[in-house]
Amino acid sequence: AQTVTQSQPEMSVQEAETVTLSCTYDTSESDYYLFWYKQPPSRQMILVIRQEAYKQQNATENRFSVNFQKAAKSFSLKISDSQLGDAAMYFCAYRSRYNTQGGSEKLVFGKGTKLTVNP
Amino acid sequence: ETGVTQTPRHLVMGMTNKKSLKCEQHLGHNAMYWYKQSAKKPLELMFVYNFKEQTENNSVPSRFSPECPNSSHLFLHLHTLQPEDSALYLCASSQVPVVGTEAFFGQGTRLTVV
């Protein structure tokens, strides 16, 4: 079974600075997807960024980028120019590319990192 | 209308009560999910419905009973719950078997069992 580990329960960053959130995972599969989700106080989980394991290029979405190290099974999220609205819980998640349950999407989540942005 | 809507947002129930959580998605997706989010623990997948058929029951106690009458609606019927069932219950939907699409989540129902 796959596992996802986020070793930083809490992180803080000054507004406009850069912060990196860590995520490691364990899998025997070679093809999969990795995600970062954001959960603000409104509680709705929002997709921040997606990485496909077969792509070597790191994904980027505006101020958000990842450092995907497949051999090390590491998937960190970098937030540049942090804004007050970035304050939230951030969850790293794993999904197999090929699922056994008729193609349904099962996400395996880490415990999350609470990010505080200081003005 | 937001993509995935959950009602109620908050629910307090006694251990002998029967209540239901509702989820509705307006995204045209064909798969729906229930997740449980407890403090200090990762999100736990509870149930998966694919084309209205239950394809996953992740060893969930029978006091939780899902129902999926159509691909847009998902219910979680609750009865004789325990205090340790207090948690945030999240509903999600996605389009399968298109590979690579993310799951869209609702805002959750905060359940407190007293």
Indicate the mean pLDDT of chain A. Answer: 91
Category from helices, strands and their pairing of chain A? mainly beta
Poorly predicted sequence stretches spanning 5 or more consecutive residues of chain B: none
Q: Report the count of strand segments of chain A.
A: 12
State the end-to-end CA separation of chain A.
41 Å
Provide the succession of SSEs of chain B.
EEEEEEEEEEE
Shape of chain B: globular
* Number of continuous helical runs of chain B: 0
Shape of chain A: globular
Order of helices and strands of chain A: EEEEEEEEEEEE
Our Rg estimate of chain A from Cα atoms comes to 14 Å
Instruction: Identify the most extensive interface between protein chains.
Output: A-B, 26 and 29 residues
Outline:
With 119 residues, chain A is mostly beta strands. In chain A, 0% of the residues lie in helices and 50% in strands. In chain A, the strands form three sheets. In chain A, strands 2, 5, 6, 10, 11 and 12 form a six-stranded mixed beta sheet that branches.
Write the layout of secondary structure elements.
The complex is a heterodimer of chains A (119) and B (114).
Chain A: E1 3-5, E2 10-14, E3 19-21, E4 24-26, E5 32-39, E6 46-52, E7 60-61, E8 64-69, E9 74-79, E10 88-96, E11 108-109, E12 113-118
Parallel strand pairs in A: 2-12
Antiparallel strand pairs in A: 1-4, 3-9, 5-6, 5-10, 7-8, 8-9, 10-11, 10-12
Chain B: E1 4-7, E2 10-13, E3 18-25, E4 31-37, E5 44-50, E6 53-57, E7 64-70, E8 73-79, E9 87-94, E10 104-105, E11 109-113
Parallel strand pairs in B: 2-11
Antiparallel strand pairs in B: 1-3, 3-8, 4-5, 4-9, 5-6, 7-8, 9-10, 9-11
